[in-house]
Amino acid sequence: MKKSITILSLIAGMFFMTAFNPIKDDIYTVDVERSTIEWTAKKVGGGHAGTVKIADGKLVYSGKALKSGNFQMNMSSITSDNARVTTHLKSDDFFSAEKNPMSKFEITKVTAAGADRVNITGNLSIKGFTHSITFPATVKQQKGVVVAVASGIRVDRTKYDIKFRSKTFFGDIGDKAIDDEFELSINLTAKKS
């Protein structure tokens, strides 16, 4: 009986310590100079690749686990492997960079998937349209720095009103078609605030 009371007292004590001393969230600010976002898009007979700069962002840790975060992309910074394509990407046919200068990703859920591996779900906002996407990532935290890497993130551009040369909307476009999906590779480095 005494042993049961002692165990219950320990459990109650741990509960009260946790309730009144919750784990404090640690905020890591994205280092925009050391972080990159690369994109690739395919079309019949080829494709293009480029980058877009991160404007700002943060990752929030609770204890040893990624809890939440967000980052913004400066759409006027988008580049491609072709100067004409770069200009076109900023136009209303694609990202309308002048009217919609920022795109945003906000983490809504993080699920553990093994050592340093997680599945991230979040809301991607482009041109005023927001849709949920999920992708695997590797996230490492050490010595006041977090590095988060994800590649092959598939985004359906038509969900964000980017329909230029889409077979879904222009079935008779033939070999001028551009794939509806493009891919992002994200490499974030964030420092403890």
UniProtKB/TrEMBL annotation:
A Pfam family it matches: YceI
Xref: SUPFAM superfamilies: YceI-like
Entries under SMART domains matching the protein: YceI
Keywords: Signal
Superkingdom of this protein's organism: Bacteria
Signal peptide coordinates: 1-19
Domain Lipid/polyisoprenoid-binding YceI-like: start-end pairs: 27-191
Regions that span the bilayer: none
Stored InterPro entries: Lipid/polyisoprenoid-bd_YceI (IPR007372), TTHA0802/YceI-like_sf (IPR036761)
Protein name: Polyisoprenoid-binding protein YceI
Organism of origin: Daejeonella rubra
Lineage of producing organism: Bacteria, Pseudomonadati, Bacteroidota, Sphingobacteriia, Sphingobacteriales
